[in-house]
Structures are given as structure tokens and as C-alpha cells.
Amino acid sequence: MANIVFYEDRDFRGKSYDCKGDSADLQGFIHRCNSVKVEAGWWVLYERNNYTGYQYVIGPGEYNDYRRWMGFNDCVRSCRIIRNAKEAYKLRLFDRPNFAGQSLELTENTKYIQEKWLGQEVQSCKVLEGSWIFFEHPNFCGRQYLLEKGEYRHHSQWGALTSTVGSIRIILEL
To answer: Which residue stretches, if any, does this entry annotate as coiled coil (predicted)?
Structure first.
């Protein structure tokens, strides 16, 4: 069963909130978030209420400071469990909106998208199996975007302001 514990202060101190499922508004439980313990499951944390703003995808482990999950600040206002992490993974990228132009199929992590792709522009994609994280920069750095099974006709549909993708990682269920 999925479980995550949020702490207002670093190093698992201060007021805490034990969460077992999706929460569109965490402000009633904590005012800031400086550390987290993920006891089970994979989660996406959002900077704003109602699953909006910057996304941070984290798995089982202890994060004693928001920078450990690549957070930009101590704002975590909503969260949800990632439900379709599984054993098969397949993703098709397109260099044009609406699944047009050149395409590339991936079945593994890609640390540097330019090794396999002409550029860093990914205008649309189809997640055929599994759950994936797009990172703004190579080496799994920068803004993160969760993509679950489905079709994304434009980069704005996965929450990105631009079509820049530097690296891609599979979400593995441990």
C-alpha cells in the first residue's frame, strides 16, 4: 500500500502529515515541505494545489531536504500516487505536434536524448506502456514531467511550457 510522510522542516522534523493516497490540497495538513519519507509507491508532488505547477517524481526512500528530490523550494501543495508503473515500457516520440514528423520508439532510460534523437524538441508522444519522466536537461536534471499511458498531442498536455526534453527515465515499481 502506498504511503508518504511529509515534514515541514528538514531532516524529518517539525509537523508531519502521513498520506496514503491522492491529495489535491495539502495546505490543511502542512504549510511547507522540507523533507519527505516515501515508505511505499511512486509519487508525483506538485508545487501548487490541484496537481499543478512544478512536478517532482519520487520513489521509495528518504529525502531529508527538498533539494534531494530536485525541488526548487519548500512548496508542495498536492500529490498523487503513480498507478501504472509496471514491468513493460514503451514510448514513441514525435518531432511535430499531433504525432507527425519523425518518430523514435524507446524502451529504456535515455540519459542524453540527443544521442538517439536529432534535437531536444519533442512536440508530441504516445506512452504505449508504463510510466515515464521527461526531464528538461540531460542526465535526469531540471524540470520533471510525468507521462502515464496515453497520447499527448502537444507538449503542453504533459504540463511543459516548451518542447525541450533532455533526458527520459522509466518509473520502475520496486
So the answer is: none
